[in-house]
Automatic annotation (TrEMBL):
GO terms for molecular function: hydrolase activity, acting on carbon-nitrogen (but not peptide) bonds. GO terms for biological process: carbohydrate metabolic process. It comes from Candidatus Aphodocola excrementigallinarum. This is Polysaccharide deacetylase family protein. Residues 225-415 form the NodB homology domain.
Length: 430
């Protein structure tokens, strides 16, 4: 038997008569590997008085032990194709090892019959009474957003979907997609995804598509319902994604930039090339440095102004103070400096802009839903809606499309700050 201990059989070898037979020494040649099924030969050889004696013995190593078939779990329902839920089936053999992949099954008369055979033909069979049933509908998973916003005439790109059935597995190829989408008209549309499994169970899911108008901003024009999206502290790793979103809706914004991170100089140039306003925030954004004296502030301001001009060719005179003109942190470094700086900038021909809508992305929240709510709840008609945001925050970029959607569907125009834009100022506190 396979995996047993084999000991060579001893023989009596002698020369002579029945009564006077002299024992002769012999040698055994050949090896039997009991770990491997097969036929082996063992030879007994001896030499005596010039004569050679040889006896050959055939040894067969066989496997007669049936494999183990293990069923884990309780049978409830079995799919018509034989797939079972919450049941694991495995098989192992003393010689072949794991032979789970050799398991065969068939369904007959509300029975499921499992059978497995090893390489020696030993077979194990088990059968169970089952209920053949499939009454669960498939699941459809949509990739991407739902809803999806499209600017008017913007081509729709399907983000994809997956359909999974408990019995049939992946049936994505069976999904039927229909839609009433018309990108030429503003409105709400739906893309329908429908799939039916092999047992006739059907599921349908919808993706909402909202087509909104593009921004109608024209330079030099005034608007009663206007929103200024302003972004501080960039450019950064999320700015390009933001630019792509703004571009889709023809929305122009204002970027109050910093200058200490040279990794995004090409993004600074891109902001300007796409028609956005580049405002001056601070080169260093170091409160202790810039608010320690008027000269230090102006040196920092001129430094960021020079950098902007170097990468855009444009000399900006639109400013936003770090912390806003109402900041009180500057008191620690130079009492009264904000009053001096605001007057000084006016004398030098600069315009500075604070804000009247807080998005909350400066530390209050990291939730895009809260940012959207903060902004949209504060937008009002006949008001310079000056929104403070930060393009260095990923959750702000995630919120921006819904803010644009709100503005455009409610008749607002998104505009960049220009030298003609009415200034929004806070009360000076230092």
């Amino acid at each position: 038997m396979v995996n047993s201990n084999y000991v060579n059989e001893r023989i009596n070898l002698c020369y002579g008569t029945k009564h006077t037979c002299k024992n002769i020494n012999y040698k055994i040649k050949g090896k039997v590997d009991t770990k491997k099924v097969g036929t082996y030969f063992v030879t007994y050889e001896a030499n005596y008085k010039g004569k050679h004696f040889k006896i050959e013995k055939e040894v067969k190593v066989v496997d007669k032990k049936s494999p183990k078939l293990v069923i884990e779990g309780a049978f409830t329902n079995v799919c018509p194709n034989g797939k079972v839920k919450d049941v694991k089936v495995r098989a192992s053999d003393n010689y072949d090892g794991d032979i789970t992949d050799k398991i065969e099954y068939k369904i007959s008369d509300n029975k499921i019959i499992y059978k497995v055979s090893d390489s020696s033909g030993n077979t194990t069979r088990k059968e169970f009474d089952v209920i053949i049933m499939d009454n669960e509908k498939p699941t459809i998973i949509l990739n991407g957003d739902n809803p999806i916003y499209l600017a008017k005439n913007e081509k729709y790109k399907e983000p994809g979907y997956v359909a999974i059935d408990d019995c049939d597995g992946n049936i994505t190829e069976e999904v039927i997609v229909t839609s009433n989408l018309d990108i030429k008209k503003e409105g709400t549309y739906y893309i329908n995804y429908e799939v039916t499994d092999s047992s006739g169970n059907k599921n349908t899911i919808k993706r909402e598509i909202i087509v909104i108008p593009k921004n109608n901003y024209e330079e030099g024009k005034t608007y009663d319902k206007v929103i200024y999206l302003t972004f501080d502290d960039g450019p950064g790793p999320y700015t390009e994604k933001l630019l792509d979103i703004l571009d889709r809706y023809n929305v122009k914004a204002t970027f109050f930039v910093t200058g200490y991170d040279d990794r995004y100089n090409d993004v600074l140039k891109k902001e300007y090339e796409k028609g956005h306003t580049i405002g001056l925030h601070s080169f260093s954004h170091n409160y202790g440095l810039i608010y320690s004296s008027v000269d230090n502030y102006l040196n920092d301001l001129l430094k960021i102004q020079d950098k902007v001009k170097r990468y855009t060719g444009f000399e900006s005179k639109i400013v936003r103070f770090p912390g806003g003109s109402s900041n009180t942190v500057s008191k620690k470094y130079a009492p009264g400096i904000m009053s001096e700086l605001t007057n000084k900038l006016n004398e030098m021909g600069y315009k500075y802009y604070d804000w009247n809508i807080l998005s909350g992305d400066a530390g209050e929240t990291t939730d895009p839903n809260v940012i959207v709510k903060n902004v949209t709840n504060a937008i009002k008609e006949n008001k310079e809606n000056m929104v403070l945001m930060h393009d260095i925050k990923p959750y702000t970029v995630d919120a921006i499309e819904r803010i644009i959607h709100y503005g455009l569907t409610n008749g607002y125009t998104f505009a960049p700050i220009t030298m003609d834009t009415k200034e929004v100022h806070h009360s000076i506190n230092n």
